[in-house]
Amino acid sequence: EEQVVESGGGLVQAGGSLRLSCIRSGFIVGDHGDNAIGWFRQAPGKDREAISCISTPDGGTVVADSVKGRFTIFSDNAKSTVYLQMDGLKPEDTAVYYCAAGSVTCTRRYFPTFEYDYWGRGTQVTVSS
Fold first, then answer.
1. Around Cβ 44, how many Cβ atoms within 10 Å?
2. How far apart are CA 50 and CA 100, in angstroms?
3. How far is Cα 7 from Cα 122, in angstroms, rounded to an integer?
4. Is residue 104 within a helix (H) or strand (E), and if so which, with residue range?
5. Strand pairing partners for 123?
6. Are 104 and 35 in contact (CB under 8 A)?
7. pLDDT on residue 31
8. Contact 119, 24 (CB under 8 A)
9. Burial class of 75 by CB neighbour count within 10 A (0 to 12, 13 to 18, 19+)
10. Which residues pair with 120 in a beta bridge?
11. Looking at residues 29-37, what average pLDDT do you find?
């Protein structure tokens, strides 16, 4: 069974850093079910926001303008893990962060998309001022 699981959230002061991890399992090589991994966040009372994505075959990435320069996405395919490095955190970054896997395409042209097939349960990130 395909699944993705997030970890690494927590409480941090403004200006601090966190690294989120998204571990995927159960995907069959060649089926493209995990062709792209995306990171999203949702703050209370707000819509879900696409943060970043990475193409697992070629490592291509897209980062939303709202976090560009502060957040970085990268992967370790040997560990089936995608990371979201978050630096310079601000109180407005407080949200539940989700990762997702899908057969979608991760390119600037198709970003953002929410058409991922497999979603994690999320990890809470809280940034205090």
1. 7
2. 11
3. 8
4. none
5. 97
6. yes
7. 80
8. no
9. middle
10. none
11. 86
Q: Rounded distance, CA 32 to CA 30, Å?
A: 5
Conformation bin of residue 59: beta by default, left when phi > 0, alpha when psi is -120 to 50: left
Amino acid at 62: V
**What is the average pLDDT score of the chain?**
95
Dihedral (Cα; 90, 16, 3, 55), 10-degree rounding: 80
Other Cβ atoms closer than 10 A to 23: 16
**Euclidean distance between CA atoms 29 and 33, whole angstroms:** 8
Calculate ∠ Cα 120-123-126, nearest 5°. 155
Separation of alpha carbons 43 and 57, rounded Å: 31
Longest dimension (CA), the chain: 45
Q: Is residue 38 pLDDT above 90, yes or no?
A: yes
Q: What is the pLDDT of residue 49?
A: 97
Q: Could you give the CA distance from residue 125 to residue 94 in angstroms, rounded to a whole number?
A: 5
In this structure, which amino acid lies at residue 83? Y
Report the alpha-carbon distance of residue 50 to residue 123 in Å, rounded. 15
